[in-house]
Write a structure and sequence with these properties.
It is a single chain. With about 140 residues, the chain is mostly beta strands. The strands form 3 sheets. Strands 5, 6, 9, 10, 11 and 12 form a 6-stranded antiparallel sheet that branches. Strands 3, 4, 7 and 8 form a 4-stranded antiparallel sheet that branches. β3 and β4 form a beta hairpin. The mean pLDDT is about 90.
């Protein structure tokens, strides 16, 4: 990330997504690579539904990383082994995806920076057993 003067710092935003029946879940990691301390604001794992027109929401799941810097370079939410569960169940033959993004301040800068939106995949067939399944794009 940076501004008009150039590069300020770098980080890794890692999202792991898995299913438990009809409920998507996420584990998130923020790793400081270099630059000033990062002061994360709200990050979000959003479940989205594929529909004609703008995609709908099937769950909004905010979370908050701890500050990261050279002295404490990693933050895991909710933990290194746990998951945040989607706020809603998915159902039936709908087609789903996720948007994962957030914002942060860098120590010494007043500008709010944004982590770009990343996706873990697309899924459908969210019946109770065996649960949701990933599939390849384009939508089929």
């Amino acid at each position: 990330y940076g501004n008009a003067a150039g590069v300020i710092g770098a980080f890794d935003f890692i999202v792991r997504q898995a299913f438990e029946g009809t409920r998507p879940r996420w584990r998130n990691t923020l790793i400081w690579d270099y630059g000033p301390q990062m002061q994360p604001q709200e990050f979000t794992n959003n479940c989205r539904t594929n529909v004609t027109g703008p995609d709908g929401y099937c769950g909004q799941n905010p979370f908050y990383f701890a500050y990261v810097s050279s002295g404490s370079w990693r933050s895991d939410k909710p933990s290194t082994t746990g998951y945040y569960y989607n706020s809603q169940l998915t159902a039936g033959s709908g087609k789903y995806r996720d948007d994962n993004y957030g914002s942060f301040f860098a120590s010494g800068y007043s500008q709010l920076f944004y982590a770009p939106t990343i996706h873990t995949g697309r899924w459908n067939q969210c019946t109770v057993s065996p649960g949701c399944r990933y599939y390849q794009v384009p939508w089929a």
